[in-house]
Amino acid sequence: MRIDRVYLENFRNYAAQTVTFHPACNVICGENAQGKTNLLEALCCLSCAKSHRTRTDKELIRFGAEGFVLQGEIFSREREFVSRLEVRRGRRKAMSVNKVPAKTASELSAVLGTIFFSPEDLQLIRAGAAERRRFLDASLSQLRPRYAAALSEYQRLHEHKTRLLRDCADRPDLLATLPDFNRRMAETGAVLIHYRARFTDLLARYAAAAHRECSGGKEELTAVYRTVSAVTDPFAPHEVLREELLEHQRLHEAAEFSSRQCLSGPHKDDLEVFLGGLSARSFASQGQTRTAALSLKLAAREIHRDITGEYPVLLLDDVLSELDPRRQEFVLNRLGSAQVFITCCEEDRLHQLLQGNVYYVSEGRITE
Ligand code: ATP
Ligand code: MG
Question: What pTM does this model have?
Answer without folding.
Answer: 0.89
